[in-house]
Write a structure and sequence with these properties.
The protein has about 375 residues and is an alpha/beta fold. The chain has 11 helices and 15 strands. The chain folds into 2 domains: about 210 residues, Rossmann fold (3-Layer(aba) Sandwich); about 140 residues, 3-Layer(aba) Sandwich (Rossmann fold), CATH 3.40.50.460. Helix content is about 35%, strand content about 20%. About 50% of the residues are buried. Bound molecules: 6-O-phosphono-beta-D-fructofuranose.
């Protein structure tokens, strides 16, 4: 992975996929670290759109990132250069003359755009989709360092991704607030959280927020166990129940609930909270309400933990380039920052291990995952 290459003068940063609190901290750390080494730093607008459709940007699809431009952004949610989770350059949808849609590979155009702008390297900040694109671009000759990002915490080969801690913190705040209203009305409150096909956000927020039931994709649930748990609580004099449901949760023998499918994009999950709430009300007769936290988990200011991880990732990406590395992802391993080949991290989803300490802890606390006997 170490290459004999011409010295770096210009580096471009791209943020792709769903935003996550901490993206701006990565940008700031990478820009300041790069400027310190005498490099020019740039940001590509909206994933790779700035390179593929520069005419759409009055200011240009690639913007210079100066010290001034990254001042005071560590605590800001979102990303100052924009992001996108549509129109993946590897499967770019185009409308054919007959009106039909086809997907084309536009990664060669990105490689040419790098040459045109004299940009020597790319720091791509994103989830699994961005890792896949980064791997392809590196194999086509670009110097690429990936920085893992997702609130879902489902990327392999890194202990944690920034954004996750902020998402969990917000979910816990929401669950905490629901306790008093649930108790006052003697209701069941179902809280749906994001996480795609992994239950990390649900498990951590459910434990921290003292949920009674947590439903995650890794442990398909048995509905009769959900009502059994609610009834057991009633018999014990606790007339309310808090249920945290991961958006990808599914019943035994069922599938995750998909609300939207579109070519070139990941499936959009949702609706499981409503479904579970309706079923609980029907079976138990208890008034049940649902709260979908959704994109609230992605917005707002990153926690101190996420800021530090994001700043460390951004600075480490620049050190990786300085060392001549390419096609690697920066990753946290305990307290150490390490570099792992992108292709080893890409395509590997990190689920919650069902035999893990965190699941056992939840069970010891009396939280039910409603698995069958
Ligand atoms: O991967 C991050 C994430 O927020 C998931 O938790 C969620 O399923 C998805 O993105 C939502 O994507 P969109 O913003 O496109 O609806």
């Amino acid at each position: 992975m170490t290459q004999e290459l011409r010295p770096i003068k210009r580096v471009a940063i791209s943020t792709g996929g769903g935003d996550a609190p901490g993206l701006n901290a990565v940008i700031r750390a990478a820009v300041l670290s790069g400027l310190k080494r005498g490099w020019e730093m740039y940001g590509i607008r909206d994933g790779f759109h700035g390179m593929l459709t520069p005419e759409q940007y009055p200011e240009g699809g690639i913007i210079r990132l100066t010290r001034d431009r990254v001042r005071g952004i560590t605590h800001l949610g979102g990303t100052i250069i924009g992001t996108s989770n549509r129109n993946n350059p590897m499967r770019y949808p185009i409308v054919m003359p007959d009106g039909s849609k086809e997907e084309v590979d536009r990664t060669d155009e990105i490689v040419r755009a790098f040459a045109l702008h004299g940009i020597d390297a790319l720091i791509t900040v994103g989830g699994d989709g961005s890792l896949e694109i980064g791997d392809v671009l590196a194999k086509k000759g670009l110097r690429v360092i990936a920085v893992p990002k997702t609130i879902d915490n489902d990327l392999d080969k890194t202990d944690v991704t920034f954004g996750f801690d902020s998402a969990v913190a917000f979910a816990v705040e929401g669950i905490d607030r629901l306790h008093s209203t649930a108790a006052s009305h003697g209701r069941v409150m179902v809280v749906e959280v994001m996480g795609r096909y992994a239950g990390w956000i649900a498990v951590e927020s459910g434990i921290a927020g003292s949920a009674d039931i947590i439903l995650i994709p890794e442990i398909p649930y048995d509905l009769s166990k959900v009502s059994q748990k609610i009834q057991e609580r009633e018999q014990g004099g606790r007339f309310f129940t808090i249920v945290v449901v991961a958006e990808g949760a599914k019943p035994i023998g069922g599938k995750s609930s998909v609300v939207h499918k579109e070519a070139g994009r990941a499936e959009r999950l949702g609706g499981i909270g409503e479904k579970v709430a309706a079923e609980i009300q029907e079976i138990t007769g208890k008034e049940t309400r649902v709260v979908v936290l959704g994109h609230l988990l992605r917005g707002g200011t990153p926690t101190a933990f996420d800021r530090v991880i994001a700043l460390r990732f951004g600075a480490a990406a620049v050190r990786a380039l300085e060392q001549g590395l390419s096609n690697v992802m920066v990753a946290l391993d305990g307290q150490q920052m390490k570099f792992v080949p992108i292709e080893e991290a890409q395509g590997q989803m990190k689920s919650v291990p069902i035999d893990s300490d965190i699941i056992q802890t939840a069970k010891d606390l009396g939280i039910s995952f409603c698995e069958p006997d």
